[in-house]
Amino acid sequence: MSNKEHSIKDKVKEVLTEIFIIVFAVTLSIWLHSWSEHRHQQQEAAVFLSNLKNDLENDIKNIDIEKNAYHESNIKYEKILALTTPQLDSIYKSKNKVDFPIYSHGPKMNIANYEGFKSSGKIGYIENEKLKQKILNYYQIFVPAINEVDKYYNDFLFKCFDKMIENADQPEEKLYSDPKFKKTIEFLVKLGKNNIRVYDQNTKPLSIELIKEIEKEMNK
User: What superkingdom heads the lineage (predicted)?
Assistant: First the structure.
């Protein structure tokens, strides 16, 4: 009787051991797969952040170029506004022309890496929540904001062109001395100064801050 009981206990132990081995093997396999997948995700996130850092550095360069272009356009518009009627008469009598800046503004922001990473559903691979939120804010709030202010400026600039075309049969000195047209140019200068402020106080500082945060994350 004891031999039979001993035999049953041995069999139970063997079964339990086999179950334990199977469960352990499955658990280990799942853990290794999860670890491997997580490691791969973090590698993808690291490559993305490295590319994003390059994009942000280029964004800063483009912002500085655009700021200078706005500044130069504003100087030329202010010179036009300062012209008196006698000065305008003198310019056209000498068969010269008023130099009206024709520059459609707007920096070329680098968004391809961000859009590709986000649209593939991988933005969650960035585990640093603070950094992730700053990236989302930059690309979903600040980049669209500067695109919008540049659009306002360009729309208003084209209104100036429309006014010039409408008055193509009139002497140019008459157009440049027209109070309504001068008011239009004044507003264009104000928009240009506002856009420089948006670049300086909002977009550029966040770009610099993001680069520092990315470098800190990559050096962990």
Answer: Bacteria
